[in-house]
Amino acid sequence: MTLFSEPSHELEALGAEQREKSSDLVFSRTCDSFPSALAEVLLEKQFCIVQIPRETTEVRRSVAEELVKLGACWEPELPGFEADTMGRSPGGKKVSWLQPRETCPPGLAAAEQVLEGLSSAILSMTPKLGFRGSERTTIMAHALCTTEEEAVFSEGLAVDASEIQDRIAFGKHRKVCIIYFVSGGGGYLILHQADEQDDVVIPCEESQAILFRHDLLDYTWRPEKQSSKNNANHNINNSRQLALQVWILRDPFQGETSLQARDASPDAIGALQHVPAGPLYGDSNETVDVLSLAVRDPGQANQPEDYWSVLSSGCDGIILVPLCRWDHDLYWSETGENGKGYIRHFGMLMDDQMAMFDNEFFGMSATEATHTDPPQRNCMEVGYDCLHRAGWTRESLKGSDMVASYGYAPNEFSQMATRGSFGVGPDQVLQVFPAACASRLHYVFGIRGPVSTTETACSSSLTAVALMHSWMRPTMPSQSSKAATRKQVKHGLAQGSNGHFDPFYSVALCSASMLTRGGRCFTFDQSADGFVRGEGTGAMCLRVSEKEDLARLAVLCGSCLNQDGRSASLTAPHGPSQQECIRFSLREAGIKPLDIQIQELHGTGTALGDPIEVGALRATMMSFEGAVREHPLVKTSSKSNLGHTEMCAGINGLIKCVLMGCNCSAAPNLHLKLLNPHIDDNAYPVHFNSELVDQGKETGFLGVSSFGFGGSNARCDIWARGMSGPRNTQPWKPALEYGAGRIHGCIAAFGKRTMPLPGATEAEKDENGDVRGGLAGEYGVGSHLQAGMEYYVTSSSNGWSMGKMSWDAEQKTHSFAFVLGETGTEQFQISCGGFDDLKLFPLSKLAGQGQEMLILGPGAAPAGHTWLVDGRDNNNSISPPGAVYKILLWWDSDAQRKRVSWEPTAEPEWLARALAEQCLVRHSYSLLASWTAWKPIEMRAVQARAVYEAVVRIGREGFEEFQLQRDADELQAIYPAEPGGLSHGVQLRGPDSSGEGKFWRIVGTVGDSFTIRLAVGRCISVSIASPSSTRTWERGSGNRPRYYVSGSWNKGGFSRMLPEPGTNELLHRLVMTMTSQGTESFQILADQDLEQVIHPELPQCDQLVSAAVGPDKWGAGLAWAVSARPGEAIELRLDLSFLGALGRGRDPSRAVTWQVLPSAATIT
After folding, report:
1. Are 575 and 267 contacting, i.e. CB atoms less than 8 angstroms apart?
2. Is 508 helix (H, G, I), strand (E, B) or coil?
3. The Ketosynthase family 3 (KS3) domain covers which part of the protein (predicted)?
4. What is the per-residue pLDDT across 47-98, written as a single tens digit (0 to 9) for each?
5. Do 1050 and 957 fall within a single domain?
6. pTM for this predicted structure
7. Judgement on whether residues 999 and 1080 belong to the same structural domain of the protein
8. Domain count, the chain
9. Full DSSP string of 1070-1132
10. Residues 901 and 942 in one domain
11. pLDDT tens-digit map of 629-642
């Protein structure tokens, strides 16, 4: 060891002047150069000793007594994670995380000021240190335990999954540790370096702070113990020393989960308690939440932000019919005589909104797109925009379960296409067929789930929302069983779309005097004489949530559909039916009518329809159970802004309600000068607003009604809280964002426990009882194996059935034997008592032998968190299929944790056990493919348990994709190492749980036949044979990936790095030629996988400046920038010995480097 300074007993004999020489810097809050000097010392030797001025020493020494008075909670750290905060050898010590207080005792306040000053100095210099940081943790007090505390702290804990996720994130985010010795001296702080360098031993002194790079160094604190008789306060510790610690954290990468309990801003966490809670669905713990909105409406409204601007500012989106649609002058006369129409204004979309379409993104040919109805094309673009705003991606949509319901009807374009106005094609009718509208997005993105197209005239899209709600509606515990015909779908998409392409239907409506002569919808006004036609597209994405979702925009509380029946006429509104529809929706939502504050009306602006609708609302919402409404009911209608968008009208009104609820204000009605005299508002607390009106509360219920001219009524009610403006209830008070950034912001601030991305919910489990969405619930950590408990192994070798472990009293181990299957790899978990929700499992997926992996449980295991027994990794030799392995489970008393190990064996006793325990399971192999709708279809065995085959014909897209599964199990996927598997030399991977998004791609002409053959045994291979050629992929002896450079010079493509001979594939290199730009940026990807990226922590940084991180999926916007003269050859080098477990404690900034080669060097 290298002794940085003299031992403490010698320091006590030295004067103050000599002791200060043992420090690097003296702390100063006023010196402008202190932060820079501190960063220079940290860059030079990775630690710095800072002397704290001693004018308040006596005050700081009182911190220990003040902690007792404040009732500080001393506790052990989370078992298995102690070293992350307490350093090595954490035994015998305790910690207390101090929560911020408005007022602190003087000693603690003085210490906090010192730590805040040091933290601010580091945070101002983080780019110089190679990372971006803006936060520090709360303060952790660190001291020795008493004897009694040690006995209590040795027991295990049951902790929530969020705490474990928090600790994992802390280990990744911590960068600089600050240890401030506020009272007491003596003992040592030992800093452990990598690369076999000597440890640094620093004597601990009072009023001294030691800062070090905790991402590069580890530490051990050995305080000097003091006998009990000299200890003035036994409740604090048996040492005279107390240390206060904080950590500087790097900022989360884009989309990455941030810390929870160690967050630098606990006020934000505490603010969660002040967020208004939303309503539940009856006695269920689920809600149907609105995650995102998308629109394409008149007034150039192309996104929700635009739509709210149109509504809140009173924008009139009605325009004259443009010539690009038709020459309306030929079909118009002021009086509507001679078979012409009297209206020439429409709520029309602009040319770019209706005509422009990215057919290549959706895999459509130009001819197919030309023959597709423009409103259907808008449904695709607006629908995907809505899904993307909810956090979905093309990859996550594939195979997802989602209900989609569309309000749509054939229009003039459909009729013209059917008549051959745009040419004749084989799929001409199909492209305009209403059923195609509902199925397109599901087909393009491989989504599963029910779809429907609804046409009920003006109420079509709100009816579509209600139908979607029926698939998502929670089932309450009080209900005896779920409907036999309905499986609840967790995700939903509702849309409505409309367009106008010739004048003839409008002329017919003029003949029936249904359209206004004034060119606008005069909703609620005395001049109301009909509606003006509009067009547009609206979409809404929803999800079933099992908890309070901070990122949701609203809650869909209730919905109802009904029909007028035999009324005055087919087109006449029927008040009693409308009242019944409203009452049933409110009853389902559990909303009292008086709680509705803002009501969006159908409000077409007709002399008869508006009074009947207002009357129906008066009958249902003026009084309830003897109580009379006091707060006026605000009534609005978006048709005064957009016109009557018909098939899209209902969802446009519902989107408006969500926007009004998020902004706590009601948008104004346009063209309202004098109230329609047929509207009865006498003694009715109602307000028809003509300007923006504040809601008066931070939360509120809003409703929308929609009525089809044939008598089909629809109603939806929502709840929303203020998320923008003066009534913003968001914890961090941001500007409201309607895109996925809002969801990622919630994840970054509060973690996935609060806002999971769309996909499987945390509580959803697979057929093995494992949680699909990650850690959920409580888990035991640090708990001993229970005496008398029976443990079972559940493994892929016997179809995940349970096999009981044997207890060896002499060795104090539980053991189990199994036979290695034909693929040479098996996975397993351990169950306590044979229960699916009481499993022991590794912290990471596919944990290998010899890894110092924390074992969690008992608890519900996340899907894929298994141990992987790989016969190929047995001391570089291959264990053949049929080999017997033994699994051991025991308690390591030295490390105070559970251990699991396995090894092959030929002992007769173990062979007998394996035969006794092994279930006679015949493994099958299935295709998961684009032509099977991503459902597993079993392959045909052509040679028993050895060779399997399937035949596929190329479909209309010209390609097909597939991967294989053992036993139709997603945890046992067989797939190419690189997406598509088209590169030369790509290896086969699996069977394991890492195959998501990796498929073989077969390219050919429509109708071409290919044979897929899988051979299993000592070597697994997959071949694809056509009549002219055959290509084969084989599994290699290991799972080492290939590395590619994706840079600006290769336009984001992939240039393979070659392994350096003789380096055991740890060193890879690539030579590139500098372009005329002189500067290029790049990242490194493993197996061309966009979720396996090696990147720096800073954007556009030079070599040796920032740590290399990964491979992971958080590299968006983070790349290295290399500069050289144009034409120079540059060698890029990747050294894996500085990354991951191999590089633990080593400087990761040295993992990726480059150099300019001499001009004579050969470029490869």
Report:
1. no
2. helix
3. 285-720
4. 999 998 865 556 666 777 777 766 667 877 888 888 889 998 888 888 888 8
5. no
6. 0.65
7. no
8. 5
9. EEEE--TTSEEEEEEEETT-TTSEEEESSTTB-TTTS-EEEEES--TT--EEEE--TT-EEEE
10. no
11. 888 999 999 999 99
